Amino acid sequence: MQNRSEQIKAITESSRFGEATRLKISPAVEKALRDSNDYLPASEKREQNIELLADGKAVCVVTGQQVGLFLGPAFTLYKAITAVRLAEAIEEETQQKCVPVFWLQTEDHDLAEISRVSILSREVEQEELIINTKLAASSSSVAYSVIGTEIEEQLAILEQTLGFYPDASSVLEACRKWYSEGRTMHEAFAGLLCEILSDSGLVFLNPRQEILLSESKSVIRTAIEKHVPVAQALLEQGEAIKNAGGDVQVHVRENSPLPFIHPKSGTGDRFRFQQSGETWTIIGGADETIFSTSQILELLEAHPEQFSTSALLRPFVQDSLLPSVAYVGGNAERNYFKQIAPLSKILGVRLAPFVSRASFVVLDQKFKDWLADLSLELEDLDLKESDLARKIADTIRGTALGPSELEKLTDKSLTELFSNIENAFQVVDKTLLSSLEKSRGKVDGLLERLFQRYSSAYLRNAETATSRLAKLQVALRPAGVPQERVYTAISLLCRHGSSYLEAVSEEVAQFNPDEKVITL
Length: 520
What we know:
The chain is α/β, with parallel strands linked by helices. The protein is globular. Helices cover 52% and strands 12% of the residues. The protein has 22 helices and 14 strands.
């Protein structure tokens, strides 16, 4: 793993860096940037950053995420802060102006994912918040999702659950200000994130704007026209990744290009489309719409809003529009970048280097104390349930033997017993040895199950330990998933206030993607 200085050096010495310093965003991209930010709270630094990009005097670090309810899971905030601190570090190292840009992923259509998030209650219970956004079509881009009346109920739950914390009032006020009926999800998301990172100069970009979609159509056209070599390159790269023991993030369809099509309107449902001979067919659509290649390309030229990018195509669109020198993402996105590595030559866009976002688990002091009382480390929460139960049981003080101690004593006795029997069988009748071996296996199996029951019973006798373990799992590894992938940062901000942001920002500056523990 590269340290901070090595990562900065890798970015600044890449061929993309020199190329980006010579790029100037187009007037259309400038307008799209201004339109994406004009409704946000005034920020002199953000305005200066837009001017720097417009004048061709700055490069940028890009990150992005789906526009989830109350910012979605906490890792979204970590991505944004990583991009801000990375831009600062690049500028400090090179004296080249560098701007952090947040790409609002409004082209996605996973409404179920963006419409729900969890908070942690005072009683250390997970509470899920869900809204039903309004859409013109069931699978249209989330750019057109509008918040409905049920947001009031979710805001009330936020206030009831988190409002008693000393730092909660300003955070909840910002939530209420931005997540309101009639506002689009992406406006609410950007507004709240802007409030939280008010002094960062973070610039937002909504790609689902007609003027920007027109700028994107050259990359989309190339992806359609060259979909055969694109698919071949992806399939070969996928095999190489698998052979190296890695995972392929996205399934590749040989006759289907990377863009999506919205056959009825830009705000309508989006589908994959595939070529068969001289014609193109919509995949999954109710209508068996058939296009020729010329019709597809003519539609793109006249109505670029009827096309949108996929996860594998989006990085090329980003880097064709912006003077980006780095992209900040998570593990899944890193896998995307590995998968699309061969496409730069085919699509004619050199990608910026990938930088892993920071990763955190935030401990209340009481959670840290509970771990210590139970003689646990954070990573122990990732153990199998039976192994964790046994480990906890061994820490409980009582008159009975601990499970591990009892197992060791029993195993020692059994080994001695079966050794004596084996010696006797060797002398009297060696044909009995196979039966002896089977018997030992059965005894071991029976005792293993018995010890598991003993461990569980032993643990049940310590109600406090059981309760604390359950709460630790809910708070730090809900359903076995990292905390940052479940709970919104709003929950942590209400609990810990500015000290949470300061701790994250300080740790982020090292650009170490390993999970870091923050105790507040």
